[in-house]
Fold this protein.
Amino acid sequence: MVASWKADETRIWDPTCELCEEARFTEWFYEDDLCWVAECDACTVPMVVWRNHGAEPADEIRGHLRSRLTEVMERCFDGRWKFDDRLRTIPGHYHAHARALAWGPEALRRRAN
Ligand SMILES: [Zn+2]
Ligand SMILES: [Zn+2]
């Protein structure tokens, strides 16, 4: 069975884009047809990535991605964080990081399962 997001012919895929490539060399926390959540190898914080090569998803997609990242953070992490969807190193592909807001005892940390 092919995953429905792979069968979606309206989906844009850029073979030169590292977010489209979906290389799994860090921990993956979640995935569905619209997005995946994994640790960013550059920032070592969780990020959610849209499963479509484009910088500006519709508001409902943006909301979905934000909710999924929030769920992962509540399930797996302690500490304060903020949703950061400014595109920097990969400006053409929408993604968002969970940025730590504090250091020391309040720092973002992985919860023991
Ligand atoms: Zn990053
Ligand atoms: Zn891409």
Observations:
- The radius of gyration is 14 Å.
- Helices lie at 4-7, 18-21, 59-76.
